[in-house]
Sequence to fold (343 residues):
Amino acid sequence: MDRRDINKISALLAVHRKIVIVSHRNPDGDAYGSSLAMYHYLKKQGHTVTVISPNDCPFFLKWMPGQKDIVLFEKKEANATKILHEAEIVFTLDFNAFHRTGNKMQLALEKIKPIFIMIDHHQAPDDYATYRYSDVTKTSTSEMVYDFMEMFDDLSKIDTEIATCIYTGIMTDTGSFRFPSTTSRTHRIVANLLDNGADNAKIYNSVMDVNSYNRMQLLGRALANMKVVEDCKTAYITLSQYELNKYNFEKGDTEGFVNYALSLKGVIFAVIFIEDKKQGIIKMSFRSKGKFSVNEFARTYFNGGGHTNAAGGRSEESLHKTVQQFLKILPKYKTELEQSYEA
Ligand code: 5GP
Ligand code: MN
Fold:
């Protein structure tokens, strides 16, 4: 985003506007962190702002400031569509292609003609935005919302709510500040957030230390199911619908499970396959260490994408067939995986 864009957006926002902020389907800490930070920031300036999320967030984000104000497209389609049609400006945060909002919401977004402002850190952005702030080197969209506020000389507007939301997004997308995307600037930003009211211990506890007994049992099942393909430095986990039901699966319960596979000594590529009978798909999460791009892997074979070291995908085959398909593809990458990183 250059100076000209900043000036134009500044002029746009000089008048009170009807603004909608959209987050992606199955919102995570960064999706809601960035959306709600932007929500509080714009509202503070007198705009009429609505956050629309395609569907609900996991239980561990239900405490976020402003979360209760979010309109769920899945639950209030007519109302959400009306609000979208009336919007003068639509921010799309933490995604860069309309299909990431799901089939129905994608159609609604394709029909409207507001000024679209994209703020996002994923690869290969689509071409729908009037103004695009896209940077794959950033830890999170939440960090970019901070940058955005800085571009407009508005860091002094950061209050406890905004600081809390941005902190949550950075914390969740960096695996609590440990992923390589975390920079000294990230830590400087976080220091500023603490100075402005973010309570680091409270936020961590609210997001991370809320395990149910069932979730722990499900994790035990997932770890017992873990398989290693040693010569490809790969580990994968499966969870069937039957297993999920057995432990009363709730949205968000499997979050982070794939990282256990990646934490195995010598493993640099990890996958979790999760059966979803209701949607008739297998949802996959891919993680890697070093240069091996799970974004490309997910894009090429499993209808997905994301970042170099974290991506998602899906398959419409059975759980068994999907794993077989994966195991058939994997040897093609043996040399690349062997050479990519010495874990
Ligand atoms: P997760 O495995 O946690 O669902 O997703 C990991 C990362 O990949 C996230 O940054 C997420 O936004 C992205 N991602 C997940 N699923 C998809 C997908 O189907 N398409 C694209 N382009 N990105 C995805
Ligand atoms: Mn993100």
